[in-house]
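Sharing a chain and its predicted structure for anyone who wants a worked example. Both blocks are below, sequence first, tokens second.
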Amino acid sequence: MTPTPPAPHTAKVQEALAARDALATALSRAGIQLPAMDIRTPWADDREAEGQYALVHLGVCSAPVALMLADVITKGIAG
């Protein structure tokens, strides 16, 4: 994976941006905020590689935030 910022005009990057935003909104509604969420690509330049997706990078979180995530997921499963 390359740490270079992805080109925002590619379809797969747009898809990843939409997914990141949807996840951030859902987490926010659950009272959870991750310190860093960004998009990364497994390709080295602005050309999409066929069969590869841009990735939503969730970064790192503290133990309390990880426990909050686990709790929200568990409650969702128990539904």
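Comments welcome. The chain has a mean pLDDT of 84.
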